[in-house]
Amino acid sequence: MRVGVIIPAAGRSSRFGAQDKLAQDLGGRPVLLRTVELFTKRDDVFAIIVAGPADDIDAFKERYGPALSFHGAKVVAGGSIDRWESVRNALALMPDDLTHIAVHDAARPCTSPELIARVFEGAKVAKAVIPGVSVTSTLKRVSESTVATAEDDAVASAILGDFGMQETRGRIVTETISRDQLVLVQTPQIFEAQLLRRAYAAGNLEGTTDDASVIERFGETVVVVEGDPRNLKITTADDLALARAIMGIKSTARVADSYRFE
Q1: DSSP assignments along 172-239, one per residue
Q2: Which listed site, 20, 145, 215, 235, has its alpha carbon 20 to 30 Å from 32?
Q3: Residues 234/220, Cβ–Cβ less than 8 Å
Q4: Cβ 167 vs Cβ 149: under 8 Å
Q5: 128 in the same domain as 205
Q6: Do residues 118 and 171 share a domain?
Q7: SS3 166
Q8: Could you tell me if 169 and 228 lie in one domain?
Q9: Model pLDDT for residues 141-200, shown as the tens digit of each residue
Q10: Which structural domain, as residue segments, surrounds residue 38?
């Protein structure tokens, strides 16, 4: 196998807060670099392309470029709206002699070598392979709009007026969904290179949330192999703390946004 890896890193990270989540410290290196390093020592990986934010690509290259270049990774401007735009832009730079192309979330630095090996091995017998973990929690569909509920403590209301009222907003349960045969999908996702190129060239990409859905829409079969609950995607500050715990890394007060990597 000759594998190329695409790492979309153009997201806004709005749920993380004001800081750049990919620049946060994980044992002396930023999240993004930790993610790239998952693939740099594999003999079957021949190209790594990181898709950065299109509207801030110069600053992105200044911050991460030297370290990524050291690992042989290239940077391309990603999409401005959807994830698939970043993958499409990176695909255009992938070498023609690759047999497979994998796509991995930039904010998944906890992926184990065993999981990567399992997904890559699956690609030797299937054209599209993704990892997934079984759903164990109860799933409910809820209303789109919210309703307000008020808790009126008579004594507090008499003394404080409106300040004695506590309001909580919630949504109405409309359906309980069976979790049978449902999985939570992870990355890396790996595909036969020409299949992924053809699927993206078909242009039916609007509304797709991962590359497997692009392949599904193209009419090809996607195979799910066992994922890993520890393979979390960092979305919030709490996720970062959990990632540090999984990786055995102590928290640091250093401000990652000021990093410059030599």
Answers
A1: -EEEEEP-TT-EEE-S-EEEEHHHHHHHHHT---TT--SHHHHHHHHT---EEEE--TT-PPP-SHHH
A2: 215
A3: no
A4: yes
A5: yes
A6: no
A7: strand
A8: no
A9: 999 888 876 555 555 556 655 555 556 778 899 999 999 999 999 999 999 999 999 999
A10: 3-133+185-258
Query: Counting every residue, how long is the chain?
Result: 262
129 and 243 housed in the same domain: yes
**Chain position carrying tokens 């020409």:** 194
pLDDT digits over 53-93, tens only? 999 899 999 999 999 999 999 999 998 888 999 999 999 99
Least confident of 17-26, 39-48, 144-153: 144-153
Judgement on whether residues 93 and 218 belong to the same structural domain of the protein: yes
Residue matched to tokens 């979330």: 105
Question: Of all helices (H) and strands (E), which one includes residue 70?
Answer: helix 57-70
Angle at 36 (CA atoms; ends 31, 42), nearest 5 degrees? 145
Collect contacts of 140-146 with beta carbons under 8 A, ≥24 apart. 140/173, 140/174, 140/175, 140/176, 140/177, 141/173, 141/174, 141/175, 141/176, 141/177, 142/171, 142/172, 142/173, 142/174, 143/171, 143/172, 143/173, 143/174, 144/171, 145/171, 146/170, 146/171
* Residues 29 and 105 occupy one common structural domain: yes
- Total domain count for the chain? 2
Q: Say whether both 162 and 208 belong to one domain.
A: no
Same domain, 82 and 151: no
| pTM of the complete model | 0.86
Last residue of a domain, one of 120, 155, 177: 177
Give Cβ neighbours of residue 125 (< 8 Å, ≥ 6 apart).
none
